[in-house]
Design a protein that fits this description.
Helix content: 25-40%
Number of helices: 6
Shape: globular
CATH class: Alpha Beta
Number of domains: 1
Largest sheet: 6 strands, mixed
Order of helices and strands: EHEEHEEEHEEHEHEEH
CATH architecture: Alpha-Beta Complex
Structural class: alpha+beta
Radius of gyration: 16 Å
CATH topology: tt1808, chain A
Strand order of the largest sheet: 4-6-8-9-10-11
Length: 205
């Protein structure tokens, strides 16, 4: 990621500044950062997960949809994130004060699940976004570390491709990790029937 402006900015200033160039930006504690162009494998994994989640939404007839561009704004920090995959509760959008004008979500009821696919900025996904997503109360957060880039304190030693699912229990995240042929356990989608290697792209495709 490349920092764009040296001075801290507010969320409103960030939204006013945001250029329509197709480049994605996030606000990290008042600092605007440019998101690197992702690798092909990164985007492939997003497409695979989106397909499986969409199928679950359809089969369960849930009022959900997948969106990629909305911001997720915690109230506890001057940040605004654009997750790789955001599962949107369409029924709660009427209660979101920033939705129509700024395409921004602030309520856990609007966000059943978010997914971040790890790039070189793994510290942000593990150490920062997990804290902010927890503070919002997002029920389920996936970190898809398909290259095993995360620190050993997060994914163990030796490091290997890992899917970490953070589930909200009594207001705090509890993490369960999946690798290889492990069957993924998703609180939001208990009928998912998907293995870790299918998400992490560690097997044949």
């Amino acid at each position: 990621m490349v920092q764009i402006l040296p001075k801290p900015v507010t969320f409103d200033e960030f939204c006013e500044w945001y250029p329509e160039t197709g480049v994605r930006y996030e606000l990290h504690n008042g600092v605007i950062v440019e998101m690197n162009q992702p690798a092909g494998d990164h985007e492939f994994i997003i497409a695979v997960i989106s397909r499986y989640l969409s199928r679950q939404v359809f089969q369960a007839n849930l009022p959900y949809g997948i969106a990629k561009n909305p911001f997720v704004k915690p109230s506890t920090s001057s940040s605004a994130y654009c997750p790789d995959i955001l599962l949107l509760n369409l029924d709660n959008l009427v209660n979101e004060p920033l939705w129509k004008k700024q395409s921004t979500l602030t309520q856990a009821a609007s966000i059943p699940l978010v997914v971040e696919v790890v790039s070189t900025n793994w510290q942000t996904d593990y150490a920062i976004k997990s804290t902010d997503y927890e503070s919002i109360g997002i029920p389920e957060y996936w970190i898809v570390d398909y290259l095993g880039l995360g620190g050993r304190r997060f994914i163990g030693n030796p490091k290997s491709p890992t899917l970490s699912i953070y589930s909200l229990v009594d207001g705090e995240y509890q993490v369960t990790q999946f690798r290889g042929d492990d069957l993924i356990i998703s609180p939001t989608f208990p009928e998912l029937h998907l293995t870790a290697k299918e998400v992490l792209m560690t097997g044949d495709r």
